[in-house]
Amino acid sequence: MPAWLELMIASAGPLLWAALVFTIPLAILSFIFGIATGLLTALVRMFAPGPFRAAARFYVWIFRGTPLLVQLFLIFYGLPSIGITLDAFIAALIGFTLNVGAYSSEIIRAVIAAVPKGQWEASYSIGMTFGQAMRRTVLPQATRIAVPPLSNTFIALVKDTSLAAVITVPEMFQATQRIVAVTYEPLILYVEVAIFYLLMSSVLSQVQAWLEEHFARSGGFAEARS
Known about the structure:
Layout: H1 3-47, H2 50-65, H3 68-78, H4 88-114, H5 117-125, H6 130-160, H7 172-183, H8 186-218, H9 221-225
Helix pairs in contact: 1-2, 1-4, 1-7, 1-8, 2-4, 3-4, 4-6, 5-6, 6-8, 7-8
């Protein structure tokens, strides 16, 4: 067996472990919290009083206008200077959540706005409150529209988790760097971790395609859930 293949096989275990323990949980948790943050931000920007809208716009402006890497550095390395020290995983989770929240808020705001105004009026005409109209009528329709862009956001997030290596999170890319430091075989190992990311992205792309087909066939989140 070639030496390079033996090295790839030997390093596959640590990389898979890092992916299962750090990379995937970090991506999933950041996406869940980020979508919740994005939904809240979108609703504030669309329906809240002026000062709250301004605060939401400021948040989106900051996190869409600065690099994610800088945001991670500010949270992990900058906050200790004012007495706030965070675990590396928590710092990465906060950074990714706020970044995803800013970008997803624009997606969510757009898909909610895309729901015809008549749907709101029909909901109110049968006695629904704002919350009921949003939950039962608007969000189910908006979800179907939001699946493709939000799926792309999640796939991009999975790859972006590699940036957590710079703040010492022992995810898949940092695990690769540690092995490189011992074996001095950067080309082989970086190709291997690239293949890992490629496989994960390919699987997620297939899931995205299935979700799009499923929502198109079922007609929305409400029907799919039932």
